[in-house]
Fold:
Amino acid sequence: MTDGLKHAYDLTFDCVQCGYCLPACPTYETMESETHSPRGRINLVKMVAEGKASVEDMEEPIEKCLGCMACTSVCPTNVQYGSILENAKEVLDESKQTGAVESFLFDDFIPSRRWMDRLGVATWLFQKSGADRIADRLPWKMPLHLEAFAGILPEMPSPAKRNERATRYMRKRPAVKKVGFFTGCIMDSVFFGSNESTIELLLRSGAEVVLPENQTCCGALHAHSGKKEKAIELAKQNIAAYEEEQFDYIVENAGGCGAQMIDYPSLFEEGTEWHERAVAFSSRVKDISEVLVEMDGLAFSKEVDQTVTYQPSCHMTYVQKVVEPPLELLRKVPGLQLEELERPGFCCGSAGVYNLVQHEDSMDVLDVKMEDVCRTGADQVVTSNPGCLLQMKLGIKREGMESEAVHLVDLLMEADPESRY
Amino acid sequence: MNKWLKPLEDCLEKGRVLTEVADLYSYSFDASFGEHLPEAVVQVKDKYEVARILKLANEYGVPVYPRGAGTCLSGGPLPVHGGIVLDLSKLPARIEVRPDDLTVTVSPSVRTGDINKEAEKYGLMYAPDPSSAHVATIGGNLAENSGGPRGLKYGVTKDHVLGLEVVTPEGELIRTGGQTIKNVTGYDLTKLIVGSEGTLAVIVEATLKLMPKPPAVRTMMVAFNEVRTAGEAISRTLTSGVLPSKLEFMDQACVVAVEQFQPIGLPVDAAAIILVELDGPEEALRVEQEKIEAIMKDMKAKDIIIPESDEEAAKLWHARKQVSPAIAKIKPTKVSEDATVPRSKIPDFMDRLQVIKEKYNLEVVAFGHAGDGNLHPNILCDQRDADEMKRAELAVEEMFEAAIELGGTLSGEHGIGTMKAPFMEMELGDVGVDMMRRIKQVWDPNNILNPGKIFAEKGQKLVLRND
Ligand SMILES: Cc1cc2nc3c(=O)[nH]c(=O)nc-3n(C[C@H](O)[C@H](O)[C@H](O)COP(=O)(O)OP(=O)(O)OC[C@H]3O[C@@H](n4cnc5c(N)ncnc54)[C@H](O)[C@@H]3O)c2cc1C
Ligand code: SF4
Ligand code: SF4
Structure:
């Protein structure tokens, strides 16, 4: 048994098989079997460790797990499901010949700023050429169901605009806090505009904002796919990048990245130097909504006469445990009517690369979510993570709704926040 | 391949017969002990499929095990002889409240908590409240005759069932009972099936009784320096003319465990605490509360705490709910029993538990529905320690002996299943068990519906070890 599997095996004993996690699990609901429930998955990992089932037997159930962590929030015995899942993924990853496409995706593409910028630029070209509007009518299929996402991507900035962005934003008046902004790879390539809004909101709240040049991908997608080595490498690079200056906060605007970064200490052995550095890093990581609430430096000056609903990022809810701040901000926007979802904690099905690699299952989960969204009658669906944002845009398109999906920061900008400092 | 698999697949929609190894393992367990692989899992979508499957099972002599949410604590849904697990949790959920009749008709897959939620929309309640009500199905509750804290005042599942629709083990659809509160037409098959643990029929519909939701509730917590006094205070309360809706007990080990798990400020220095809930109109509650306070003072209670707000009260009940997970932190494996004694014998039972605990050198804690004598003694041990598990087996046996000697029973609500089957004769005598066995034989001549439950097989013993 590998160390990872042994560790996961030990953790499975915390599960008393009470089934309390069943009602919380989206895949149990959509796939309708215990095999695709948290309790079933934990049991399968145990069976594999005991040699009763093979690694292939657990492959499908484990890969179909969204990793949303809803199960952990209701588990009475605090089973460390996240750890069990990651170790199981690592075992699967070792047993498989990783395909060339996947290894390119994880080893080179996602962590590389150059490639990510190229993705943004390519999308820009794609949109400018008008190809996005006909993508779902093209006679051939794009890989990874990318055709489904064409036409829902936001307007891209031109390459020139991308290059224009500074790495340091100072205020005219003295700053209240110094913030290191974590741009994120998907956020920065696809939602460049939302990153600009984030910087603006921080400045108006009274912060000085720095974008450390050596930052890289947070490593969440790697960790969740069992690529622990790569995740550690990326974590180290980020920790070092943010040690170059003294920051009060390390701010991100992507729940998935935030959750990974507050979890950096678990990547290193306790007592080691890297562990200590990871703790120092993680303790300052905050979601943009938390920081805006804490700094309380904005006065919203324009009415936003709309009904909105809020779709929280699962990792923000269950791992970062940031629930109230986004709602608090939304309640402050004048004129805005907030209609909360009945089941905000139910995943939208985006889940990292899940909506690409498990597209059909992801759409089943999305359908459940959209039913809830439709019921609210919202004009806008507000999210706090790029994956959820894309997924909600897709959901809206699939349902043929009039609504729009926006990142929280962009909605806040609509209300013309004035600086109170 | 099994010769019955093909015909089985033919009578169901595609994808509803699961045979992958991963699926078989996923239906091999419940919330108790033991792991048994079925040969197939079928997920039915209507009652006619249930009937067809049972006919087929009789034809081929293959055992069928009904299953709800798999939260059973006694091994009820385990496929101990292979065969087919019949997953009833995917039947379409249906809850039809008839407010004028104060009844509700439900499909068995519905979660019990959802029935109550629906009833509340009409100012009504479905009284049985097992702690697992938000997960377990009503089908499972009916089969196990489950109960909860409110059982003290309102009774358990069987007290709330008016009628059933069931599929007999031979695959015939029949109705028992009806829609009315009174009904003496023929034998009471409804009550026979409720609590039969899926061995006599598969429940496909039930009509249940609803009652008006009490307008108000009040909670109090009382701490004692001695377990025995706590037990006496419970008896005094119950004979005082006041009938609380809940009366729960936790011993010191449980209180300490909860405080270590999620501190809320329970008195860790108390030997035992009891939680009382009264329900009814505000005016009545005031009088009843004073009465109970006077009793507690008279019994030299260490502390009497009356929460100032609903949130405070909710916190105390939350603490009670945390006992089960909290004690699991003492040691990983929890052997949870629910032997029940006449209410006046609770102090004696507590003494016996203490002796057993010392004799076998085990961690034993007790908490539960003291108001109805249904205590949950729990042994905390480690499945990976064979010697300790052996001692636990012996301790469980001795707990059953103690409960029966005190005039009690093996199980108050969790059922017999596989786990307590070997002890049935201890309580009922051989003729008593034989009369039950004969009923089973008449209902299920080919012994295909949930075999291996309730009735022990030759030489069967309690085993808490997975080889
Ligand atoms: C943490 C925890 C707390 C619990 N608390 C309580 C409590 O407070 N009170 C209490 O009484 N119990 C309690 N239980 C035990 C358990 O939840 C109940 O026994 C429950 O009724 C089981 O329902 P289920 O849907 O999970 O059924 P399962 O576990 O799937 O099955 C239970 C039995 O019912 C049979 N069955 C299921 N559906 C049908 C059907 N439609 N027709 C015929 N037979 C059927 C099965 O064959 C099996 O024998 C608790 C369990 C856990 C894990
Ligand atoms: S809630 Fe926790 S202990 Fe219960 S079955 Fe799920 S993972 Fe296991
Ligand atoms: S992480 Fe989400 S999808 Fe996976 S088992 Fe838990 S609740 Fe289900």
Notes: Residues 5-87 of chain B form a domain with the Uridine Diphospho-n-acetylenolpyruvylglucosamine Reductase; domain 2 fold (CATH 3.30.43.10).
